């Protein structure tokens, strides 16, 4: 895990704006439910169930202060 100040990468930023946008628009054109809320249950039910249980049973320590 990386600690400290985040150092932005121009290459990753450019890739996210160009290739990432193209891939997302292509997926959205093929699958009308892509990117909609609740699609985790359809794509990967095991992961969705795990995340739901995890978020309901865990808590942040510093939230109490």
Structure characterization notes:
With 65 residues, this protein is mainly alpha-helical. It has one domain. The protein contains 4 helices and no strands. The longest helix is centred in the C-terminal third of the chain and has 13 residues. It is flat.
Domains, number: 1
C-alpha Rg (nearest Å): 17 Å
Main sheet characteristics: none
Given the helix and strand composition, which structural class is it? mainly alpha
Helical percentage: 55-70%
Discrete helix count:
4
Characterize the overall form: flat
Please name the defining characteristics of this protein:
65 residues, mainly alpha, Phage protein
Topology summary:
Blueprint: H1 10-17, H2 19-30, H3 40-43, H4 45-57
In short:
Helix content is 57%, strand content 0%. It has 65 residues and is mainly α.
């Amino acid at each position: 895990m990386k600690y400290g100040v985040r150092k932005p990468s121009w290459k990753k930023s450019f890739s996210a704006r160009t290739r990432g946008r193209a891939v997302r628009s292509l997926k959205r054109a093929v699958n009308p439910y892509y990117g909609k809320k609740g699609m985790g249950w359809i794509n990967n039910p095991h992961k969705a169930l795990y995340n739901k249980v995890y978020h309901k049973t865990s808590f942040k320590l510093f939230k109490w202060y």
